[in-house]
Amino acid sequence: MRSILSFFLLVIPSLALSETYEVQMLNRNANGSMVYDPPYLNIQAGDSIKFVATRPGHNAASIKGMIPDGATAIKGRLNEEITVTLNVEGLYGIKCTPHFDMGMVMLIEVGAQRARAEDLPDGLPERAAARLHSYLAEKN
Ligand SMILES: [Cu+2]
């Protein structure tokens, strides 16, 4: 009886807790230069992402056209470590403003929706589009 009670005391609260994921903002890793690590996450509504300024000169901001209706745009300043809680389900695109053209982008799925190639907006910088397509290919 006591073990059953402690099981519930331990397990039930952890099911209800939302998680915080850390994303490093890097100049380089095995995937190339100017990267978020990891570059792709699938999380639950209410989870948070902390963008860690591991290297200077980066930020995290929403990509226009890649934010769910009703969600607040993300706009971190350069070198700023921000923690954002994503409460609205859907697809979020993140860019590093100075390195958007170099393909420093990230893809976040919140909830059950899965990103597809046709969800990517037109007019993305070539290298940003190429990386987002590669993340889509890797995760499927
Ligand atoms: Cu950057």
Report on this model:
- With 140 residues, the protein is α/β, with parallel strands linked by helices.
- Helix content is 21%, strand content 31%.
- The chain has a 4-stranded mixed β-sheet, with no helix packed on it. The protein has a 4-stranded mixed β-sheet with strand order 3-8-7-5, with helices on one face.
- A hairpin with a 2-residue loop joins strand 1 (20-29) and strand 2.
- It is globular.
- It starts with a helix and ends with a helix.
- Bound molecules: copper (II) ion.
Question: Mean pLDDT score, rounded?
Answer: 91
Rounded to the nearest angstrom, the radius of gyration is 17 Å
Q: Approximately how much beta-strand content do the residues carry?
A: 25-35%
Q: How can the largest sheet be summarized?
A: 4 strands, mixed
**What general outline do the C-alpha atoms trace?**
globular
- Quaternary: single chain
> What is the CA–CA distance across the termini?
44 Å
CATH superfamily: Cupredoxins -  blue copper proteins
Poorly predicted residue ranges: none
Counted beta strands: 8
The percent range for helix content is: 10-25%
The secondary-structure element order is: HEEEEEEEEH
| Tally of helical segments | 2
Q: What are the distinct ligands in this entry?
A: copper (II) ion
Spatial order of the strands forming the largest sheet? 2-1-4-6
